[in-house]
Amino acid sequence: MGGRTDFPAFYREEEGFTVSTTIDKYIHLTLSEAKGVLLEQESAEHVDSVAQLKNRLVKHILSSYGIENNIGIHVKSDTPTGTGLGSSSSLTVALIKALQRKKYESALSPSALAEKACDIEINELGANTGKQDQYAAAFGGMNAFSFLSTGEVKVSPIRSNHTSSLEMATQIFYTGISRDGSKILEVERKSSDVSKNSLRKMRDLAKLFYQEINTGGDLKTMGQILDEGWNLKKGVNTLISNSSIEDSYQKALAAGAYGGKLLGAGGGGYLLFIFPREKQENLQTALTHLQPLPIKFTTEGAKIQSGD
User: Does a structural domain hold residue 248?
Assistant: First the structure.
C-alpha cells in the first residue's frame, strides 16, 4: 500500500510511506563464464562485449563493475514480467548482489544494496519509478518504508502476530494481462499536481493499514482500507483499470471479499484480495476466468544460494 509515494517527485516535498511484503515467487539469477557476453532471459542476447548489449539495465550494471566480457547471465522468473510483482527491480538487486560477490567477494548491507539499485535505475538510467520495490527485494519480509525528503529510507519490519492470519486470507489472481508500467507512470508524471491530493490519501491509508496489522489485525478493516486505496488509485490515471479488471473486482466483492487492489502500476497484472476463509471457495468460483497464484509470505530478501 502507498505505492507512488515512494517516487522522488512526491517524497522530496513530503514524506512517502508504503507497506509491502515479499512472497515466495522469485527471480533466479545465475552467473557463468561465457565467450563474449551472454544474457538469457525471456529472449537471449549473445554479443562480443558489454557495450553491444541492448538491455540498458544489465549493460549499465556490468559496466559499473568494470566487466566488459567473458560473462553469462541466466535469468528465470517464477511469474511473468510486467505484472506488478516487482520483478524488474528484483533483477537489479539480484544482479548487483551477485556481481558484488563475484568481483569483491563481499556483500553490501540491505540498505546499501537497495540504494545502489535505486541510484542506478532512477538517477543514472532515468527510470520513472520509485524506491519501494528495490528495498523490498533487498530486505525481504513485511515492512513499512518511510521515504524522507533527504532521500533516506526508514525501514520498519512488521513482526505482528497478525501476519499469519493475513497471509491465509490473501488471494492473488492473474488477469492474463502484462503491461509496460512505465507508460502508465509517465502519464501520471505529467499530471502529478492533479494527483497529489490522492497520493496523500493513499499514503495515509498505508499508515492506517500499518497501524491495524500491528494492533487489532482485523481482516475486514484491512480489506476495506485496501478497497478505499484502490478506488483512489483508479482516480489517479484512467489507464490503471479497465472494464475487464473492474468486472473481476466487483465479482470478488459480490462473492464476499473484504477488499483488494491491482498490484503494481496498473493496467493488468495481478489482483489481490483479502477474503474471509469460510468464503474462499466462493471467490474461486466467482473468478474462474482468472488464474490463481498460491503464495506464502517470506522473510528473506535477495540471497546467494550456498554452493553457487
Answer: yes
Q: In this structure, are 183 and 276 located in the same domain?
A: yes
* Spatial CB neighbours of 32, under 8 Å, sequence gap ≥ 6: 38, 71, 72, 73, 74
130 & 251 share domain = no
Please give the residue range of the domain that contains residue 240.
163-292
168-171-275 Cα angle (round to 5): 70
Task: Find where cell 515479499 sits.
Answer: 22
167 and 93 fall within a common domain:
no
Q: What is the pLDDT of residues 64-120, one digit of tens each?
A: 999 999 999 999 999 988 888 999 999 999 999 999 999 999 999 999 999 999 999
Q: Report pTM.
A: 0.94
**Residue appearing with cell numbers 544460494:** 305
Q: Is residue 254 domain-shared with residue 184, that is, in the same domain?
A: yes
Report H helices in the chain.
8-11, 56-64, 87-104, 110-118, 132-139, 163-169, 181-190, 192-214, 219-236, 243-254, 280-286
CA–CA dist 39, 219 (Å, integer): 43
